[in-house]
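Hi everyone,

Forwarding the result from last night's run.
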Amino acid sequence: MSAAKRRVPRRKINRPVGLLFKGEYLVERVFQVGEGGLMVSSVTPLAAEDRVLITFSLQGEGFITSKATIRYEVKEGSQNFYGLEFDELPFQARREIRSFVASHSRGPKNFKD
């Protein structure tokens, strides 16, 4: 999905994310975050419209937990990436994510993740 189609900006991140999926707890990686959702990789096959419970931390302090729906899959070589849309993101969590994303956009122009 191109950035032009996104409703809200995202920020690159590389942190663990917990996924509760069909009664199984998985620890995967999150690679992008925005107010609308996450981009995660998973070795467990997921499908569009699957629902998960996610738990992640933006900077190693405190955790954000939300229900999410798988919206799409992107395959890059042997890796599968999934776009998740938050279903029930608490207001405070939305504010934390907005601040996290905005803090990156105010950084130096030549900074690369």
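The radius of gyration is 14 Å.

Cheers,
N.
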